[in-house]
Amino acid sequence: MRIRSKLRSKPRAHARGMTLLETMVAAALTTIILAAATALLLAGGRVVHNTEHVADSHDHARLAGETLLSAVRQAGAGMSEGLWVVSGGVPQRLNPVFGGDGAGSGVLAATTTGNQPGEDGSDDLWLVVPDRNYLGRDCAPGAAMTVVKPGTGALEVNCAGTFAGAAPANPMLVASNMKSAALLTQTSVSSTPPTATVNFLESGVSGFSNAPHKGGFQKGDLVYPVRLLHFFIGTNARNGRRALMRAEGIPGGDVSGRPFVDMGDPVVVQDFVEDFQVTFGIDATNTGDPTRYDFQHGLQPEYTPGLRSVRISVVATGRSPRRDNQNQTVLSEDLPIAVENHTPAAAPADGYFRSLFSRRAELPNLAAASL
């Protein structure tokens, strides 16, 4: 009994919990760790966002520039000695590549939607671009037809049909002797197998052809479809941001006295492009040396011998502003940039990183030696 009593009276070990002080210290440490992790996560997310913004701006500039360069390289095929166009009822020889300068005036002023003078300092560019298939099989869609009877007026050609079924709403054609060409506004094609007659609006203009000094169109001239492309900077109504735009043109006098006008609403070529600059390289002395070209801002429509090169520059941004680690707009470095002869007006930084794409392209179709 005594032994049992001693066992019962032996004290037990008590379970020890956390004190209030220890709980407070643990909570504070947890809060600090979570805050640090959150800050690190937010900073990492901001870095990712800013990196994506820069990549976006690079992509937008590159895509816009490459699109322009592709069109430039195709322009002017068969028109190395100019393009004859009826302007105000009078034949006039033009460059198949020309454009306005954002700092210019008159015919050298840049124009935008509806051929209104631009006010933002950007340039614009007009190109006469043939269908890519014009050197393909006769009578195939987009391919050339051959003139079989010389003279002026409606053209008799070796194709008994239209180019691609139903004629487009405003079909543009050229008749080219592979040096100079004449722009035709097609109205109808009447088939009289094995030939056809191409009727066009300009047929009533006395002496109009691709070679007035020869008395009209000549047997063997090629007739093929072309597009009048007008590139400029405009506002995309869907997002309110500036973009590279393209409109299709037709012959007609615009407000600046140029021979082409936009015939419809433009389409967006590339979003988030805020500036477009183009300079024209002239080989005035016919040296054939690209290092000696004279580059100028803006080129009038009237035929200019020696046009050999253009330099395309576009400035693009990302979709949304870059921000710092405190989620504030980066104000110190994200500003509009000066390109060619265009220096944007001073303005507060807006957080948009600018990417510049600048590339020079030769105009192989305007060098007669390359034909």
From TrEMBL:
GO BP field: type IV pilus assembly
Family matches, as InterPro entries: N_methyl_site, PilW
Pfam families membership: N_methyl, PilW
PROSITE patterns hit by this protein: PROKAR_NTER_METHYL
Protein name: Prepilin-type N-terminal cleavage/methylation domain-containing protein
Source organism per UniProt: Corallococcus coralloides (strain ATCC 25202 / DSM 2259 / NBRC 100086 / M2)
